[in-house]
Fold:
Amino acid sequence: MWCGIVTLFPEMFKALSYGITSRALKRKLLEINFYNPRDFTIDLHKTVDDRPYGGGPGMVMKVEPLLAAIAAGQQKVGNNAQVISMSPQGKCITQQDIDAIASSAMNIIFIAGRYEGIDERVYDLVVDQEWSIGDYVLSGGELAIMVILDAITRLLPGALGHEHSIKQDSFVDGLLDCPHYTRPEIIHGHKVPGVLLNGDHKAINNWRLQQQLGRTWLRRPDLLARKQLTSIEKELLGSFIEERGTNYE
Ligand code: 4FV
Structure:
């Protein structure tokens, strides 16, 4: 996967040089090129922002340096990159979106806004999609891009040591993840659930699915409302709720 990142702070992306994203970069599963709008300015002061028309606080990122930076990225990949701007006004990205992007192998040029945002005419002229990572305001789009890139990269074939763990991810089946335990078997008086200790994998898978259903019912009923449960799943959730009666876990 190739992605271009239009950002005033390319050094921030050093954060991707750790763990799974680092390995994916080394294995060339992911290739990133940076385009700093400041390098595409023509004035002595390398101006990338200006005061907002209509007044008001803050500054707005100028059209020309952004268009030139984006054009440089498009040139790198023969003009077939999707231009994606990160902002709170964008579509809130879900795991389903991440799955679709990771399996699409599409080229992406991300725009990291700063200040109050970018001039709207950049959207009119070159932005294909606008994405958000959540309903809160960041000081810049860089962290949002890294969140998206991290979520995509771990799904790229060869990125994770063991592919099957993806199948057990949260949200893969529209449910929250089950609890995880490792040694010691008892700590501070807290024991690992017995079902996980006697190697009955059918019982273990049922327990994990029941935990996923129960937790989703407790914490994210909105997700459960979107999911068509099988009869087994209805049974497992039913006994989860029964076992807990009114007081939840
Ligand atoms: C954001 C978000 C976000 C808004 C102004 C950058 C900031 C500044 N991006 N999801 N939430 N962006 O807050 O993606 O330009």
Observations:
- The first strand starts at residue 2 and ends at 6.
- Residues 2-153 form a domain with the Alpha/beta knot fold (CATH 3.40.1280.10).
- The radius of gyration is 23 Å.
